[in-house]
Structure formats: structure tokens, C-alpha cells
Amino acid sequence: MPGASQPRFAFGENWQSFVATVTKESIAAAERGLCRLFPDGTLRGCRFLDIGCGSGITMLAAHRLGAASVHGIDLDPASIEAARRLLSAHLDGGAWSLRVESVFDLAPDRDGRFEIVYSWGVLHHTGDLWRALEKAAAMVAPEGQLAVALYRRTPMCRFWRLEKRYYAAASPAAQSVLRALYQAAYFAGLVAAGRSPARYVAGYSARGMAWRYDVHDWLGGYPYESTEPRTVGNALERLGFSLERVFERKARAKGLFGTHCDEYVARRRP
Asked: What span, in angstroms and rounded, lies between the C-alpha atoms of 66 and 50?
């Protein structure tokens, strides 16, 4: 884990702002994202754990798709508050819980195990990706499923690690300048590729998120690690899992504008 002197990005502040913008369309997009990972009604009747639950929108989507209970943990108290606001506003009853906790503190003997453990874009921000993956995997019930999304390694990852470290510790004014510069460069890249920036932003619906919130999340996401599909597959195999689905997404321009998450769904072998 990062030392006490190292900056850690305040994801929760971003999610608290995002929760106020959540619409039926963004919730539906979050549901589609889960159905892509877990097709054929897999979620129905399961116990669902979201590690690094952020805004709580994935927990909400899992509940709406039939999960018997949804549980979320997050290291940032502001994220837990954001998720509590969202779930309280959209769930009339139902079994759900939230608590401030690190993935490194999870204990299956105390917390039980879950048919589905989900962690999207979180474990690579813990400061110890592989130990975090091991802790998450330990929470999966026999023949249950683990879904994780992890940054794809690119030649630019060293640069982005330095940028994120700076951004996470920067003042709001400095962060605003960096966001403006990044967005201008990103839009220029879209135009050069013959694409409309306005249409891109309007059509952005990754897991129910909005583009401007994801930009802040990307620029500030520190600690930061990245990896490759073969390495992840080997790690899951050693932990007793078999890969069922992998959704690879290579970064454009060798990571010049950042990287994407590859998504992995694996089942614990009986």
C-alpha cells in the first residue's frame, strides 16, 4: 500500500457530485454493463459484493437485476455517503449494506462469501494490485464468480503514474487547468480522427457514468498500476479460478490519452 506521505486521490468527492446527475438512462446503462459481464440471469438470487463501490450505481443495477442482496465497501467515507444517498433514493426496501473498509481488511470468516464479487477499476488503485486481487478472490463462494476491470499496460503508463501523483496532490485550481488541457487535447484527437467531440460526450455511457466525471477520475486515480491480460489470467489460475469471459480493450495511440480497462470474469473452480 502507498506510504502515508504519498497522495491518494479523493474519489468520493467525484462520486458525490455524480450522484446528483444520475438518471434512469444512466441506471439502465449500468444494468447493461452488468448483463454484459453476467449474461443469462446470473445475478438473480445471488449475494453481490462490490469492492470499491464508488457512487453505488452498480449495486443499484445489481439489485434491479435480481440480486438477493447487495453489499458495498469503499475506503473513502465520501464514496460510502454517495452510495447511501443513491441507494436510499432508488431502493424501497431490499437487502443492502455499505461500510467504509479496505479490500485488504476483508475476511471471509467474518463477512461470509458471495456468489458474485465485483470490482471495476479499483484494485489497480490500492497500491498493491496483486494482493488486492488475492483478497477479493478469497471472498468468492465455491463456483461463484469474480469480475474485475484492470488498466491495460501501455508505453505511456510511467508518464501517467507521475501525472496522477501530481494531480492527486494538486489544488482544485491546478486540477481544473489540467482537466481543461486534457479535454482540449482529447477533443483535438477526436477531430483528427473525423469524430465529433459533442457526439462523443453526449453518447458516453460507460457503466452509467458521465464523461466529465470519468476524466477527473482518470487524471487523479492514484495510486496507479497497470497490467496485461496474460498476467491477470495466470494470476487467477493460481488462485483457483477459470476465466469465463475476457473483454479486452487496447488503448489508442500507445496510451497517449490514457488507457482502458480490460474486464475479466472468472469462476472459482469447485
From this structure: 15
Q: Which residues contact 178 (CB under 8 A, 6 or more apart)?
A: 163, 167, 170, 219
Q: Sort strands 114-120 and 47-51 into parallel, antiparallel or unpaired.
A: parallel
Q: What is the CATH number of the domain that holds 101?
A: 3.40.50.150
Say how far apart CA 12 and CA 54 lie, in whole Å.
Answer: 7
Where in the sequence is the domain holding 97, given as residue range(s)?
Answer: 11-154+222-268
12-42 tens-digit pLDDT: 888 898 898 899 999 999 999 999 999 988 9
Residue 210 lies in a domain: no
CA 63 from chain centre, in angstroms, equals 18
Number of domains in the chain: 1
Q: Is residue 182 part of a domain?
A: no
Band of the pLDDT at 144, cuts 50, 70, 90? very high
pLDDT tens-place string over residues 113-137: 999 999 999 999 999 999 999 999 9
190 part of a folded domain = no
Cα separation, 95 vs 71, in Å, equals 8
